[in-house]
Design brief:
The chain has 142 residues and is mainly beta. 8% of the residues lie in helices and 42% in strands.
Length: 142
């Protein structure tokens, strides 16, 4: 059984409740590699791998609270369009990166544009969703 601090390689298929696949490492051609139990993965995924044996494949359902969290309306922010350079090019309904005050780039969705303002949604795109993962543990190292 794996334990916290070990480096693992795993393949997975991630699906929504309706069966829609949102990610699949087999399609990427290589497994993910991470250290278990140090916060590199969502908590539910980390916990699932902690109870796996080398070579095992299992399917786990992860509630949103152990994935990307609940959808939070406080993660919506509005700004006047006239303060945004090239605001006429904002892609409504699409994800973009915008610079934050600390210089980091933050991914958000252009949620709506109305009455001279744009509303950005900073929630993770999978926030509020329960996820199902089929995980295959390929290798474990200390």
């Amino acid at each position: 059984m794996t334990k916290a601090g070990q480096r693992v390689f795993a393949h997975y298929r991630g699906m929504l409740d309706d069966g829609t696949e949102f990610d699949n490492t087999y399609n990427h051609g290589e497994p993910i590699d991470f250290v278990v139990g140090v916060g590199q993965m969502i908590p539910g995924f980390d916990n699932a791998v902690l109870s796996m044996e080398l070579g095992e494949t299992k399917t786990v359902k992860i509630p949103c609270a152990e994935a990307y969290g609940e959808y939070n309306d406080q993660n919506l922010q509005s700004a006047p369009l006239d303060l945004i350079p090239n605001s006429e090019m904002l892609p409504l309904g699409e994800y973009i990166f915008i610079p934050m005050e600390n210089g980091e780039m933050m991914r958000c969705k252009v949620l709506r544009i109305e009455n001279g303002e744009v509303t950005f949604d900073f929630n993770h795109e999978l926030a509020g969703k329960d996820l199902t993962f089929e995980i295959q543990l390929i290798s474990v190292t200390d």
